[in-house]
Amino acid sequence: MEIQVQSIETPALTKAQLAELLFERIGLNKRESKDMVDAFFDLVAAQLIEGVDVRISGFGNFEIRTKAPRPGRNPRTGEAIPIDARRVVVFHPSLKLKEQLQQTVSSAPLD
């Protein structure tokens, strides 16, 4: 699978590109492809908002972590400011994905 990115600075696969790949490879029409991608991400987001971890076999886990409040500081002024408690999403890749990434690195030619 070859994916072309729009910018050298921030290579990223977009939802629009995912929908286009579904259109090309599976044969869904463009509207169905876009709806499927949107539905997938809406479902993942809804589960995370509810506090449910999302596990995708062969890819990885999205986990919710609650960070405690802590003291911080403004880097410009040095002024102490409190940082509120918050929930964050953490991604842990599966072993299968890690192995695939390492194979890609080890087979890449060195410049």
Structural summary, described in words:
- With 111 residues, the protein is α+β, with helices and mostly antiparallel strands.
- The protein folds into two domains: 14-51, Irregular (HU Protein, Chain A); 53-106, Irregular (HU Protein, Chain A).
- Helix content is 41%, strand content 24%.
- Strands 1-2-5 form a three-stranded antiparallel sheet. Strands 3-4 form a two-stranded antiparallel ribbon.
- A hairpin with a 3-residue loop joins strand 1 (54-56) and strand 2 (60-67).
- Helix 1 (15-26) crosses helix 2.
- The longest helix has 20 residues, at 30-49.
- The model has no long low-confidence stretch (mean pLDDT 89).
What keywords describe this structure?
three-stranded antiparallel sheet; two-stranded antiparallel ribbon; 3 helices; 111 residues; alpha+beta; single chain
Number of strands: 5
**The CATH homology group name of the largest domain:** IHF-like DNA-binding proteins
How is the biggest beta sheet arranged? 3 strands, antiparallel
The CATH architecture of the largest domain comes to Irregular
Might you state the CATH topology name of the largest domain?
HU Protein, Chain A
Mean pLDDT: 89
Which structural category fits the helices and strands? alpha+beta
- CA-based gyration radius: 19 Å
**Topology as a string of helices (H) and strands (E):** HHEEEEEH
How far apart are the termini?
23 Å
Strand content: 15-25%
Q: Strand order, biggest sheet?
A: 1-2-5
Number of individual domains: 2
Shape, principal axes of CA atoms: extended
User: How many H/I helical runs?
Assistant: 3
CATH class of the largest domain: Few Secondary Structures
Low-confidence stretches: none
Helix coverage percent of residues? Answer: 40-55%
